[in-house]
Amino acid sequence: ENVMKAYKEAIKEKYRFFSYGDAMLII
What we know:
It contains one helix and no strands. It is mainly alpha-helical and 27 residues long. It has one domain (1-26). It is rod-shaped and about 40 Å long. 0% of the residues are buried. The model has no long low-confidence stretch (mean pLDDT 81).
């Protein structure tokens, strides 16, 4: 369970990073 939790956390961090990057590109 901890592995899946950590995996999901990593996905969430990556998603936020890419979303932030897209926002920077738009600006």
